[in-house]
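Holo prediction. Input below; ligand is adenosine-5'-triphosphate.
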Amino acid sequence: FSWSEFFWEYLLPEIMPLGFAIVSALIGAVVNMRIPSALGDLINILNEQATAGLSTAAEYMTGLRGPVMQLVSLYLCQGLATFAYISLLSHLGEKVACKMRKNLFESLLRQDVAFHDQRKTGELIDRLTSDVQDFKSSFKLCISQGIRSTTQTIGCICSLYSTSAKLTLALAATIPIIVLIGSFVGVALRQLSKSAQAHAAEATGKANEVVANFRTVRAFANEPLEGQSYEVLIQKSCKINQFLGIGIGAFQGITNIALNGIVLGVIYAGGYLMSTNEINPGQLMSFLVSAQMIQRSLASLSVLSGSAVRGITAGSRVFEYIHLQPSIPITGGRKIPYHCLLGHLRFEDVHFTYPQRPDHEVLKGVTLDIKPCQTVALCGLSGAGKSTIASLAERFYDPTSGNITLDGVDITQLDPSWLRGRTIGYINQEPVLFSGSVEDNIRYGRPDATKDEVVSAAKLANADSFITNFPSGYATVVGERGLALSGGQKQRIAIARALLKNPSILILDEATSALDAESERLVQEALDRVMVDRTVLIIAHRLSTIKNADVIAVMKHGKVVEVGNHKELKKKGGIYSELIKLQ
Ligand SMILES: Nc1ncnc2c1ncn2[C@@H]1O[C@H](COP(=O)(O)OP(=O)(O)OP(=O)(O)O)[C@@H](O)[C@H]1O
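Structure of the complex:
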């Protein structure tokens, strides 16, 4: 957690409300400090009036008017200052939290696919929600209470000093000891808090996964199992938090005892000074209220230290991901002008290992030439590395060695957002639709597309007829909490979405394998129509879907072992003909 970065990037743009909030908190603290002496004045006047033996109520009231008015105006000022700093800090806190969430979310969107492979969704969402919330609450509390309590402590010590230097020095000597012990305990508590938050995030990740895959959990009747594993995770975080609570509680309890002891000491010593006529009863009253204010301020500072521990830990978890740099940028690099783009994709001796499985080489020297407007099919046994090839073409990952080129240019030189957003259309087995209308989902392929373009992409994808049959047509809401579409319908919307960007290269990764015969026919019909005049890479298990491909490459254990067309490979009597027999 970098304070300087936090100040320059998050606080400086909000310096006005921050400044006013600090000034209001300071005014509140100063006003608070004036109250003991105003009370002291009132006591002195009451004392004098009692000694003088005033008889009428009017005389009594007249004498009190001055100090009472002074107290009332102090109370009003204090109320106003409290209102000002609380509302200003809320404004500031919300702005800071909003900016942190925006920066964190943008950073998560920038990260490599490998980063997301390695982390649970819930853990990331936890940082975006709970951690930012914890940081914001703690930040607001630290500014408001921190400024008030610190100013009041310092101010009250000064006012005590003016009353009795000896007594104040003795009092001040004990405070650094408490602060020193407090900072040691603070470091230990921070460690504990960090570990508690990490466990809570793990539990959120688990909950997220289970809720997202609820149907699978229900289908396997695994509710008790999932309940138990969630409980194990939450119990870990619960135990550490309980331990943390004991630590914070013990620290605050001991601090309170020490502080109350200090007040007792002040009463004892103050009483002695009064008996030697060094101070009057009013001064003793103000002395006591000041000492009690110091006690309250220090107690709230010790509570604050617990909140600061949580806040800094949460903040460092947020900034950890904000600062993370992806190894593959999402923008920047060359773009091949549309009229020059041929769509010649070539893999040259490509080796690849997934970052989270460094001991398992998935591609072991793949060479594959996909010529412009050619349809190349990849087949082979499950786990041979076919989908990995598609991921590398999309530059979700970079090869460990070897090159992938598009029209002779290494794809690492090309702008990744141009490559994915404009050049390659990727359709896989399980299309994901976002919540929103059918039209929004198709337009996701190219946000600036017109309604006519959306409709013609849907027509090409064989989707227009079923969409127009819905009562709300293209405005029908789908995705989460929307209309449940069949697999074939979803797939055709996904095809329309991919087509909207008019990609030069189309990658179809098992695009029809999850569909029934009728849906497959409709989707295949759409695909046959859109594959014309494009470079196409098809990945399929069902060999009937690829037999018309110009080139078929058979993969085994991360290598391309056979290349040719259907007839040639069938005649060859190798793995391909074995696969045909099997099917
Ligand atoms: N994100 C990932 N992280 C780690 N390993 C992975 C990842 N994705 C795939 N693998 C591994 O890489 C190997 C190749 O997987 P890939 O999905 O490319 O095979 P495939 O030929 O497409 O298989 P299928 O036909 O079953 O889809 C497998 O051993 C798989 O376990």
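The chain has a mean pLDDT of 84. That is the main takeaway for now.
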